[in-house]
Amino acid sequence: MMKNTNNNDMFDYVIVGAGIVGSSIFSALARSGKSVCMIDKALDVGTGAAKANSGLVHAGFDAKPGTLKAKLNVLGNKMYPLEAKRLGLSIKKTGAYVVGNDKEKLEELLARGKTNGVDGLHLLSGSELKAKLPMLNPEIKYALFAENAYVISPYMFTICLAEEGIVNGGRVVLGFDAKRIKKHGDIFTISDGFDEIKTKYIINSSGAGYNEIANMIGSEIYELEFRRGEYFVLDSTEKNLVPSTVFPLPSKAGKGVLVTPTVDGNILVGPSSQLSDDITKTTAEGLSFVRSQASNMIPSINFKKTIRIFSGIRTVVGDDFVIEKSREMPNVINIAGICSPGLSAAPAIALYVLNLLGLDTKIPAAKKIKPYVALSSLPVSKKNELIARNPLYGKIVCKCEGISEGEIVDALSRPLRVVSVDGIKRRTRTGMGRCQGGFCLSKTIELIAKKNNITLFDVVKENKGSNIIVSGVKKS
Amino acid sequence: MRQTDVVVIGGGPAGMAAAIESARNGAKTIIIERNEVLGGILMQCIHNGFGLAYFKEELTGPEYAYKFRELVKKEKNITVMTSTFVTKIKGKTVTIVNSSGIDEIEAGAIVLAMGARERTAANILLQGTRPAGVLTAGQAQKMTNIDGKLPGKNIVILGSGDIGLIMARRLTLEGARVKAVLEINKTTSGLKRNIVQCLEDFKIPLLMQTTIVEVVGENRVEGVYISAVDDNYNFVGEKKFVKCDTVILSVGLIPETDLVDFADINTRTNGPVVDDFMETSAKGVFACGNFLHVHDLVDNVTLESMDAGANAADFALAGCKKGKKFCVIAGNNISYANPSFVHSGDGIAKIRFRLKSNVSKKWIRVVSKDEVLAKKFVMAGLPGEMQTLEVSREKIKGDILLEVEG
Amino acid sequence: MKLTCIMCPVGCQLEVTKQGNDYVVSGNSCVRGERYGKQEVVSPTRMVTTVAKTQTGFVSVKTSAPVPKQRVQDVVDEIGKITLANPKHGDVAIKNILGLNVDVIVTSGK
Description:
Order of helices and strands of chain C: EEEHEEEEHEEE
CATH topology of the largest domain in chain C: CPE0013-like fold
Number of helices of chain B: 6
Structural class of chain B: alpha/beta
Number of domains of chain B: 3
Helix content of chain B: 10-25%
Shape of chain C: elongated
Strand content of chain B: 35-45%
Radius of gyration of chain B: 22 Å
Oligomer: heterotrimer
């Protein structure tokens, strides 16, 4: 269904894995004018860890000084406002609080932040803290406030980067499940059993699937540890619960259960952190852990307003990111263990990889993508203008989020093909609201089928095999 | 900017009934409906069983809607706006959007008749993976009856709500296999007749005090682990794997009041707090149908909504004349009562309520200051059934208590 | 024989007993219940509601009267064979389906 390769497809760079990191590198290489292709076995970009994380751009005080995590987080953080601006993507500077009663630990974090080069850190307590976070459990006495923390949509960031790479000459091949990678002379041939893609360099950014790809390449294998994080998403009716991200003091297992506004106006609570296989499922233990931890910080959370629960897998390798040239196999870049703060670091990781590849890290100005604009965010006059031009903008499909048919058709008409309901959901927020597609699923399926010229039976929820409709009634 | 006496938001059975009665009382009335036709969810409820109380004949959902649409057409005072969506309600001004653009309607009164939505997998914290093949009974119903498509072949239904039972039969007749209907409680939430004609007729097992522990499957549902539960919903005994490709949820409805920030919400029903005129705490804003509280029968929706429409017209044209305001208290074995407030004065106040548990051969009464204002005898009452008691307003001189005797 | 009446949402618990050649129904609260009770023990019947194909999609239909319970699936399958051209609310889609003296009626509601 998704084949769009030719046998002679030959690139200088192939990125395996279209997550946040892969897409950041893809865009950077394409904007630098390089011949680049990004492949993924999924039918959309950003369907792994990219779609299931906290959506936070951390300030960078948490990581151990001197690590790649610290360095790339702090640099990435500084890059984000411009990244978002270039892509026309919403980003909100909400700031973040780490709260707790262990003042020494918080001071340690503050000092560590300063060592890492993080600005805008403040230790708060008493009435000052109470004024900023009146909803905080009154038994919690101290907080470290980081001004320069942002919320962003991690999957929209990924999608926009992938699209940006495409408009700048890069190629994205989705539904390409690499089965074999062979090297003849200086050329790698990647095959999925049907098609082949040839390249001089491979960048392995395949997240949880890193070792499988590394095995095919013959590059280094790492001991991957999978940590499952389970989350609650609360209705937009709860959007004023907290003004900023609120974390507990970090522990060995991670940054802990946080409560944060999202860039789209929901509240996100999570993650748990359980060692697991790489299956993204929610569990009673995970959810009840999140619930009790979060309620300890913010007692007024109303979990009855949950509109979605989800889980994501973060892949961990030791204490730091792995981003290096393969020693086993020339012209391969290994990227593994990009757990938190992977999203925060992603733009910096792209530059770091350009450097590893011996390329200039000054990326020239390039073609821009058309920004995603939610109709609901526009002023009335602008909306009326759009509806006059295309009446489909006046036809609401998703009632919870107020998304029009015109916006869905637009999302289906962009550089990256969309064949999944979840793909439309991520791009337009159709089905993202409190009824979770209860009223709009049929229409969304119909629009996807029509635009892609496929049957309703071919429309999937997310990946291959996730078809929603199994047959017609009347044996039709 | 348009002006009208009454705006009715929602063109399902509640909205149509409210609009008809509003128009009949002389008010210029606009119905706003987001779908292309009036009828709401009735259009996908192609089964029979509607209309026995109101039309004295048994109709299917679309037929019931058809009859009301014909009645709407007869009312010169009604303007119907379909494919139109309300984006904002502020005071008594309603902002709408449709393919002609954005507009505002300023009304003398508003009737909220936006219905309910289904509880989702997230609402019940359904655990496991998130594959394709998990959907609500209403989604499955729309897919099957409107789109003519089957959501799956081997199906487990969670919850014994009526739509789930109806869909068990519907999907079976279209060639799917419904492996079981699971109900976490000790009693079914759907009507007895549906247990008989939708499950027993087709030998579909109904497993009481049983629920899904976990959904399994990466892309499409591959099965569910199910388990028996005790009275406190703790899992008991061994969990069992049931292979299936689809999980249909029929676990209740929630009034769509999430964006109503201008009126008080009843935490028991999730609908707005109303008085005996069906008026919410926002003056001139009335509510009815599943938006007010989830009904068992559409006929009850119709009757209730007619009252709301008539009162909205009165308010817009002359202002409702109300006496002194008193509370309605839900007493012994009453789960909840609507309205929350009644008034003294003329006419009749209708109290609609649900029982907490099964009642057999008992009187239900309305008491105020040791005086019984109204009562009725119930042969066999179930928590799922909506009951009504009428109280003459002239008798109301204080707070009233609704209770099951004994 | 104990039965739950399905004639209306009340769902009365019926008791049907044989008396000579006839049956006596108790527990019903209306005449429809008595009729149902007798019918159910002699030869149970059910209304059928389903959808029929049209040239552009699907339309809802029902039987004009109940059909024998064991023929319900046959009726649904028979309706599955037809494709209606421009059906209108109330149209007869199939006359005397399967010789059961029952018609199939379009209930599109439009």
